[in-house]
Amino acid sequence: xxxxxxxxxxxxxxxVGKSSFVSAIINQISNKECVQEKHPPINIPxxxxxxxxxxxxxxxxxxxxHQLPEEVQVADVILLMYAINDDGSSERLKRFWLKELRExxxxxxxxxxGNKLDLLxxxxxxxxxxxxxxIKQLVKDFNSVEMGIECSSSKKQGIYDVINxxxxxxxxxxAPIYSxxxxxxxxxxxxxxxxxxxxxDRDGDGVWSDTELEKFQKKVFKRQLDYSDIAGIKDMIExxxxxxxNKRVITLEGFIALQKRGIELMKIxxxxxILRFFRYRDxxxxxxxxxxxxxxxxxxxxxxxxxxxxxxxxxxxxxxIRSNSQSQKGNTINQKQFDDIFYPVMxxxxxxxxxxxxxxxxxxxxxxxxxxxxxxxxxxxxxxxKLLCYIGIEIKLSDxxxxxxxxxxxxxxxxxxxxxxxxxAIVTRxxxxxxxxxxxxxxxxxxxxxxxxxxxxxxxxxEAEQQxxxxxxxxxxxxLIDQNCNFETAQLIPIFSYDDQVPFWTQIxxxxxxxxxxxxxxxxxxxQQLKKQNGLPILEVFSVISLLAFxxxxxxxxxxxxxxxxx
Length: 567
Hints:
Number of domains: 4
Membrane topology: Single-pass type IV membrane protein
CATH architecture of the largest domain: 3-Layer(aba) Sandwich
GO molecular function: GTP binding; GTPase activity; metal ion binding
Distance between the termini: 72 Å
Strand content: 5-15%
Number of helices: 23
Helix content: 40-55%
CATH superfamily of the largest domain: P-loop containing nucleotide triphosphate hydrolases
Structural class: alpha/beta
Radius of gyration: 32 Å
Strand order of the largest sheet: 2-3-1-4-5-6
Organism: Paramecium sonneborni
Transmembrane segments: 536-558
Protein name: EF hand associated type-2 domain-containing protein
């Protein structure tokens, strides 16, 4: 683990021994007495503590009785101290300190420290459960409280234990993965474990065999399991779940139960070792550095990105696991199964909803499932890659996508014969009639025609000017322009007139025919112009006037004016 800066702030009522505690640490480090009302921040040498990866700064505080010290703003972990021999200071933990921290929005882990252990009588000192009596209710009432510990600053008893506990709380935070009050794993941790389980389920059968468990252990912990180790793990799962469902194979619930038992046995470090191996941060989102790689393609020249066969194969496997295990039909998934696939996702996404697919059905088929991914990747491959990682597909970005050829010359267009995704943009003056009914405020409609995916979007004239002309040119394959619309384009894109009196899907199917009559729907005239391009950007060769002077074959035209003229 790489070294991490760690700021540990000590707070509490005046007289509970905060500065004495810091003095005791300094004395242990330097072997000299140092007594002050408030110490400046001190750096604790790495070699005197159990976690040298923490570059620890201990910060003393002093403030008015009803005020939080400013230093809590920089704290990674807070030591909230009270005096064991003073019932008033322990009552203030809940009545003021923890309440104030919560109301001010501080969410750092809090460790309750009972100081002045030496002032208790010998019999009282034997009461091992004393600290748990103090924090029992605090843990229920305040999510930030992680543990309690006792020490004696004057006798230098347990002071390093306090620091070590704080470091562990920083390196292996409990709150993101476990609720002490509910005695249960957090939803975020369960999501992360679901993703990890899927990644290590190499054969995709929804359970772990002994071999998969061994590979997981060796991969994460660099340790080989023997037969007795595996048997012990399964016994632990059986005790947690109170059944023997994991005797032959380990289920997802069994894997989750194993982590819960580990936390309750104070083996939190094991959970975080697993999480960090699979690139999780402290907030249980994936490390953003996983998604920083970019593909190199020329969007301005009409080059697009599509999912590779490797990625599509993995998506097929995910679909088939759910359809075969739960669906009676065996070839579809329903909304619940759809949501289950995306359960591990810990980021916002614009992935299409089921009602964006045409024809709209309660369940979706494999082809529809793949079409949704094809369309999503077409518009935003980076977000698609992040989503693939979250749902449990382990694949490099460079293996996930393939770049299609450019569309700014005839030679490039001829090489695009294997394209699977096309974008049809409809431009209208206002969203009216069957268009309004068809889109129903959806950002996109997705359909499959002859094994090709079509993403259909709707723009009004202003949106078309702002988005199609300036930013979205490269991913428009065909324009349907409403007859009442004044929108014109200087781009070399096949265009057809949209007629509100003709059924919507009749016109979409007509576009499909046009797109495949000639390469991507280009007319003979456009093909001739593409042959002249020699790779030059389209806008450098064409002007609006020259484009408006010619018509496209098949009855579709370059602009609204020519459309009206030829009606």
